[in-house]
Amino acid sequence: MDSELKEEIPVHEEFILCGGAETQVLKCGPWTDLFHDQSVKRPKLLIFIIPGNPGFSAFYVPFAKALYSLTNRRFPVWTISHAGHAVAPKDKKILTTSEDSNAQEIKDIYGLNGQIEHKLAFLRTHVPKDMKLVLIGHSIGSYFTLQMLKRVPELPVIRAFLLFPTIERMSESPNGRIATPLLCWFRYVLYVTGYLLLKPCPETIKSLLIRRGLQVMNLENEFSPLNILEPFCLANAAYLGGQEMMEVVKRDDETIKEHLCKLTFYYGTIDPWCPKEYYEDIKKDFPEGDIRLCEKNIPHAFITHFNQEMADMIADSLKDDLSKM
């Protein structure tokens, strides 16, 4: 995609209070308030991206822009951070709605169950009930997506894409065997070490380190990159990761069966979080499902170099659905 074209695509950043937690939402396209927009030009569909862990929505901006362009700029593409994975800059206003203010805070919002409820709370308070949805979950975001469909089956979801889906046996995967002891047993050592190293570090040094790191990973850093080295955010990412290792064990075949017609699974061939064996198992159990194996050696963290390829795949899969909108 032409770099100038990407730069022309508007992306609006908001920090909102959702379920009691500061949340970053990045909105690709000119629509910033779907809930109160009653005009005839209001889009009929929202493409909603749920990240992996860490849930830094800024990492997904190039992917969102590519997808927005490939769908002919007809539909908003929004990406939400996980609760506790983003902290608003001091000069940034945190927006609230009357629904947010009156809602009860979500219990254990930084944990696995709380993060699911956090995404549902956002949809309730910021997206009209009659607006069609395309959900895109990456990694643990795929697990969240399935759970959202299970808990609120009446959500008007027309398609859901589960990219490199960590929806089962996480602690048994190659990376899981390494991550489980670190996240579950040595978590507090990581917390203290991170706090001692990063808390006194000047913002200018953090910014320099982050810029260099993002350049290496080919990631854009136009929105609040300091969260990457914020001890509070890293601690919440580790806390969530520990729960993932312990609780994401058995694949939810009942929910998959109920919503199979709208699900697309995309597995990698070189993914140490959900190895090829997991693809073969689900393909055998659901032979009629849209369950794909990547043929391009795209890694689990596709947002580093393969945004265009993944956006191409999703846009092509959505052609028939979007032509009816």
TrEMBL record:
Hydrolase recorded as keyword: yes
Keyword check for Hydrolase: yes
EC supergroup of this enzyme: hydrolase
UniProt-annotated location(s): Endoplasmic reticulum; Lipid droplet
One GO BP annotation of this record: intracellular triglyceride homeostasis
Cellular component terms per the entry's GO annotation: endoplasmic reticulum; lipid droplet
Alphabetized GO MF terms: sterol ester esterase activity
PANTHER family xrefs: LIPASE, LIPID DROPLET-ASSOCIATED HYDROLASE
Protein name stated in the entry: Lipid droplet-associated hydrolase
Gene: LDAH
